[in-house]
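Whiteboard transcription, Tuesday session. T.W. wrote the C-alpha cells on the left side:
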C-alpha cells in the first residue's frame, strides 16, 4: 500500500524542499518506488532541486484539470519520479489546490508519495496536510522557525491529520535538541540534518546527495531519516 507523506512547515527556507528531494532520492535508492510532488504551487522549485525541467505538463496542469496527473510525472535522478510545478503566475492562478487529492490517488501504485508543501498557513498549504497519511515537520532550531512549525503541527491536528515527527535541519553540535523537544515544538525529533556545504552545492546543480555527495554528513543523516521514518535500513 502506498504511504503518503507531506513535508511541511509554515516557515520558509527551513529545508522542506531539500528534505523532500533527498528523502525521496534516498528512499528510491533502497529500491522503493517513490513519487515526489511539488506541492508548493506558489513557488515551485522541487523539480529544479532534482534537475528536472518539465518539457510538457506540470502539476499545475493536473490541478487545473487540463491533463491526467501521470502526464506530469518525469523520471528524475536516482530512480525517483518527479511531479514538478510551473513557476508562472498564470499557472498558479489556474491551479485548484483541492485537486491534489486526485493527483495523489493517481500514484497509488507507488510505495511512497512525498509532497513538498509551501510555507505559510493557507488553503494551499492545508490541503496536503489532510491528503497525507502522515506529516513530516521540518524546522531549523531557530525560535521563529520552531514557533511557525508548531503552528503547522497544530493545524495538522485540527485537520484530523497525523504527525510522523520532526526533522531539525542545519544543526551543529550546539543545537539544543532536548530543549527543543520539551519546548516550542511538540513533536518527536526523528533526525537532525547537519549544516553541510554539500547540501547547497547539490541543490545548485540539481542532483540529490545520494549521487552528488554520498559520503557527506548530510547524506548519512538522510539515510537515518529514511530508517527512522519507514523502518527501511
Ligand atoms: P524550504 O523548502 O523550507 O523553503 P529549502 O529546502 O529551499 O527550504 O532550503 C532553504 C535553503 O537552505 C537552501 O538554500 C538550501 O540549500 C539550504 N539548506 C537546507 N538544508 C541545508 C543543510 N543541511 N545544510 C546547508 N544548507 C541547507
Ligand atoms: Mg520549498
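and on the right, the sequence the group agreed on:
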Amino acid at each position: 500500500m502506498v504511504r503518503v507523506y507531506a513535508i511541511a512547515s509554515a516557515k520558509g527556507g527551513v529545508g522542506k524542499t531539500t528534505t523532500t528531494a533527498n528523502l525521496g532520492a534516498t528512499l528510491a535508492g533502497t529500491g522503493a518506488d517513490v513519487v515526489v510532488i511539488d506541492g508548493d504551487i506558489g513557488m515551485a522549485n522541487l523539480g529544479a532541486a532534482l534537475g528536472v525541467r518539465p518539457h510538457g505538463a506540470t502539476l499545475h496542469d493536473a490541478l487545473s484539470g487540463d491533463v491526467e496527473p501521470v502526464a506530469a510525472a518525469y523520471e528524475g535522478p536516482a530512480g525517483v519520479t518527479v511531479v514538478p510545478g510551473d513557476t508562472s503566475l498564470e499557472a498558479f492562478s489556474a491551479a485548484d489546490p483541492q485537486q491534489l487529492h486526485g493527483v495523489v490517488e493517481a500514484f497509488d501504485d507507488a510505495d511512497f508519495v512525498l509532497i513538498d508543501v509551501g510555507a505559510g498557513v493557507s488553503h494551499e498549504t492545508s490541503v496536503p496536510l489532510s491528503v497525507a497519511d502522515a506529516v513530516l515537520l521540518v524546522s531549523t532550531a531557530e525560535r521563529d522557525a520552531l514557533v511557525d512549525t508548531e503552528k503547522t503541527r497544530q493545524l495538522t491536528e485540527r485537520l484530523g491529520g497525523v504527525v510522523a515527527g520532526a526533522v531539525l535541519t542545519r544543526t551543529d553540535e550546539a543545537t539544543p535538541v532536548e530543549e527543543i523537544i520539551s519546548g516550542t515544538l511538540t513533536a518527536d525529533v526523528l533526525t537532525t540534518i547537519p549544516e553541510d556545504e554539500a547540501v547547497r552545492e547539490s541543490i545548485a546543480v540539481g542532483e540529490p546527495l545520494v549521487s552528488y555527495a554520498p559520503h557527506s554528513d548530510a547524506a548519512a543523516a538522510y539515510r537515518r531519516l529514511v530508517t527512522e521514518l519507514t523502518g527501511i535500513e
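Someone added at the bottom: The chain has a mean pLDDT of 96.
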